[in-house]
Amino acid sequence: MFSFSKKLLYTALSVAMIGGISSCTRYYENDLIVSNDGEQSDKYAIWLQLGSWPNTAQYVLGASSLSSGAVNLKGNGAEVTSKADYGIIPHKGFYYYPSTSATTGRFTKFQLSNNNLGIVKEVPFTYQSGISGYAFANDTTLIMVGTNGANSKVLCSVVNTNTLEIRNQELPVNPIPVGFTGVKTRNATYANGRLYVTIAYTATWPAPEYPAAITAIYDFPSLTPVKQLEDNRSASMGQSNMWMQGTHVDEKGDIYELAQPVGASVTLPSAIYRIRNGAAEYDASYFFNLNTTLGGAAVALYGIGYGKAIVKYKALPDDGTDAGHIFGYAVIDLPSARLLRKLNELPLDKGEMLETVTRDGNTVYIMVNAESEKDYVWMYDIATDQATPGLEVVGGYDYMLRVDKLK
Amino acid sequence: MKFNYFVLLVITTLVAITTKAQQPTAVLSGQVTSAAGHPLADAAVALKGTNNGAYTNATGKFIIEKVKPGKYTLVVTMMGYTKQERSVTIAAGTKATENFQMVEESVTKEGVTVISKSQNRQVKESGFAVNAIETRLLANTTTDMNQLLNRTTGVKVREQGGMGSDFNFSINGLSGKAVRFFIDGVPMEVMGSAMSLNNIPVNLAERVEVYKGVLPVTLGADALGGAVNLVTNQQIKNYLDASYSVGSFNSHRGAITGQITGKKTGIIARVSGFVNYSDNDYTMKRMKVYDSTEKTYVRRDVRRFHDQYRSAMVQAEAGIANKKWADVLFIGAGLSNTGRDIQSGTDQERVYGAAVQSGSAWNTTLRYKKNNLFTEGLDLNVFASHTADKSKITDTTEVQYSWDGSYRPYDQAELNQIKSINHISRPRNYARVNLSYKLSAAHSFNLNYTFDQVTNNTYNELLADKDDNPAKLGKNLVGLAYRQDLVDGRLQNTFFGKYYGLNLRQPRSVAGSGEITSAADNQHYFGYGVATRYMVLPALGVKASYEKAYRLQEVGEMFGNGIDQTGNPDLRPENSNNFNLGAFYNLKVGQHRIYGEAGAFYRDAVDFIYARAYQSNSKVSRFENTSKVQVKGFEAEVQYEYGDIFRASANASYQSAINNTKYASGSKTGTPEATYKNKIPNQPWFFGNAAASIGQNNLFTKKDRLQLGWDFQYVHWFFLTWEEFAAASTKSKVPTQYIQHLAVTYSLQDGRYNISAECRNFTDQRVYDNFSLQKPGRAFYVKLRYFIH
Prior knowledge:
The structure holds two protein chains of two kinds. Chain A is mainly β. Chain A folds into three domains: 30-125, no CATH class; 127-247, 6 Propeller (Neuraminidase), CATH 2.120.10; 287-400. Helices cover 5% and strands 44% of the residues of chain A. Chain A has a five-stranded mixed β-sheet, with no helix packed on it. In chain A, strands 21, 22, 23, 24 and 25 form a five-stranded antiparallel β-sheet that branches. A four-stranded antiparallel β-sheet of chain A has the order 4-2-1-30, with no helix packed on it. The longest helix of chain A is centred in the N-terminal third of the chain and has 15 residues, at 4-18. The termini of chain A are far apart. By secondary structure, chain B is mainly β. Chain B has two domains: 2-106, Carboxypeptidase-like, regulatory domain (Immunoglobulin-like, Sandwich); 120-788, TonB-dependent receptor, beta-barrel domain (Maltoporin, Chain A). Chain B is built from five helices and 48 strands. In chain B, the strands form nine sheets. Chain B has a 24-stranded mixed β-sheet that branches. A five-stranded mixed β-sheet of chain B has the order 9-15-16-13-14. In chain B, strands 1, 4, 7 and 8 form a four-stranded mixed β-sheet that branches. In chain B, strand 24 (356-370) and strand 25 form a beta hairpin. Chain B starts with a helix and ends with a strand. Chains A and B meet through helix 1, strand 4 and strand 8 of A and strand 20, strand 21, strand 37, strand 38 and strand 41 of B.
């Protein structure tokens, strides 16, 4: 029979086991709330990605200057994996993140300071998950455009950046042409009370897109359609993702839009179109063929003031992957549709879908991921037309995702 | 062609062996038993000075044929027993019988004895790096195979949630497609996709073997990192093991396995099956939900609300045994069915409330075994099957759920951009032929051939009614092993070569240019390896093994899917040089038994296949050989037993996986990647387990037993991303886990009736295998089990 001593032993063992280990583990919860004051933000930020799939990770690194010195990620910078990604909108001391890639259904306002990407405010946001372009109507009004998952509707969200109140509205576009399967938005541009949305009609890959450069124009804030422009000398107007620039509004209020045909079968050139201030037509006298000008297709357009822009272009033939160091930068004059010069002092850059150019006053910062040489944020002085290396990014990072002026 | 040379070599070898064996002689047979009269299996019986000999079977019997007339010394050896020698005279054309009664090695002579070798121990003491786990110790608990294996050295199972959740199984740091799963040497996929380690109750297998890095040829598969083989009860005698458990989260598990032999007909019928059900509605602690009154996100404890899981399987076979023309002939059939709600994505930031997955499969099987085919020592083993396996993922709701169960309209479906009812159908034909030949006690050969063909049909019911480009994958794998048992069985060497033939077909493929073409490809690869073991002392052995291992390309990886993945005809298989070193020690003094083993391993794996963006401005990807990984590590385990009263064990595993990819994909020169030579993130690298049980027989009545068991798992915290980079305060970590389980079992009539109560995770830890994916907290279960054998 079960003796008392045995009972005691079993009971003691059980108690000892249960009481054995206390729970003192710390768990990750990314709720570092910061105050709503853009002044605390870092001045500049660099986004980097390391590692081969599946162990890729993204980081953001704050910097007080991009003109000299060196930075690296060793024990420095904020890890953003599972929190945000480089599909993010910088504006006056804050980042706005619609979780387009993460599809968490949240819209978050962050601030970067002291290696911390802290949450300022966060609201549910499920109206759209495929945002491709954004524009600011003013300092507190952010407009985001995208398409629904089935690529059948164009969606627009207008955000009050202080309260994060969001107005959502579908934007009407011309019907999808016969033989094509969907519509995709590209860039959004705001100028003088109007919203210009570049769009493309898509077919099942690898069939090319509908061969036209299209811009849909809406009155803002009513978002009523004004007109949809179409020109067949090029195609795929604007950029397919919100982390590249493809349009520019100059000091005169004229809009310049880069069309850059994509897809294996496309033969049309990349080109810049112009819409004059207040007009609802492409400027028929203006068509800047960048393939012939640069010797390779342009992939991004960054206005830098004074009627000028930086274009990123394919300086070497494309091998079909995004891994090659084939991208060069050139300075162009927009009104006269002229190449000013190629920035040949910069090494060739890697990665097409990256936000690698930002401007602060008369200095344009161009972050270049070189194959063999050191990686620098290069400084292009608009006034003197000189390009010199600035901040060195040390470490040989796989992808240099974006460089931002935050305030 | 390389293959033809290989086949020629194999045939020549077999012919040579067979020819040599065909010499007319006498037959010597007998039985080996213990002092108590129990038959001893796998004792070595040899004619001294010759290459002739045999091992005893499960009933202790042996037979040595083709013995030339003459005087011999017959030697019987078995670990833990004193060697016996006996002089025998064999006359031509006679059938001699010699029986042996073995005596355990004397305690007084050497102070120690070792226990007799079970099959489990034989596997453990082979040259291969292998965990061999007997399931009987946990047969009265609610444990499933994953939970069982997760407690062993070098293995880490990372589950995404509760019962039936997705999991990642890693062996010595290699996981995913690098690890293959078998039941009795046959790939588990043959049973249908419902059959998975996360739902097979522990009662269905007698033991489990985990091969690390180096695989015997009998497991015919391209396993880069290792394999798990569940071994079911293969005994001839009748038995029944039936159990049912109920517990927290409305969880139910039932399992049955048994065998019955018709007394008149001699027909044997076997059945095994299980049912599993759970609501998996465990509490998720401190989840982010939106408070519409406060207009802010807050943290609250919520219950999972869309994670119901059910699965059922039954496999039956009938046949005969011990006929002249067949030792075993069985035909069988199986059915399985599974269904599950999908609650979250790869992290708990993504919540689903409507998407579901379901599947069903059936199979037919044929099993044939004939020992001593044509000649003594030549054993044939054949298995063939056809499987129909269908599954469906339904994702048709355009809403987005929150953890509080609320939802909002969304502009896309839950899992995918567009609504889908995706059907996946994978008919599979599989055959395995194994020929083993024991030339003598010292030399044996094994030739294994597997044919594995699967067609992959996938389509979205809302867009199509069939797959326009079903991919067909055929594998022809041949393995040949030669095993030596030298120095009185103390030295065991296995040399092996493997041929991997891969045949890929897809009626339609999309090339980078947009052209649509038919695609087919054949690939051939050769692997090889060696496993060796030496018994330094009767209780102490050392072992080493090596294999050049492969994980072959899949059809989708080679040809793309025609939708958003393009083909890559230059894709190579993932391959690795795998090395293992180990030692084991087994000591028995009176009632005390100590077993210890330790091992070190090295893996140098290259050409890992991952999808990469193909043309950067489109959403098209291509599979490429992108990365290289080097893994080094060591592991150790100790076990202590005091009779059947007390048992304790502890183990620890350490592995250091280093990124060996020097240049970013697409570059062969330039600046090395920042992460080159860095520790691979998001992988447990130090973990251990401990268990103890104490039991008492004849407590309340005769032949009863009360047993208390405790189990503890430890996983050291690890970084989600690369260790060196970013400020420490911002880095995401998977925290250290201390998980403890308790179980109490009361058995009657020598284990025929059993009732168990179990508390899992009794300290109610927040348990994570993966970053931000909580597993269940404290849970209670009761299990009833009837076992007769």
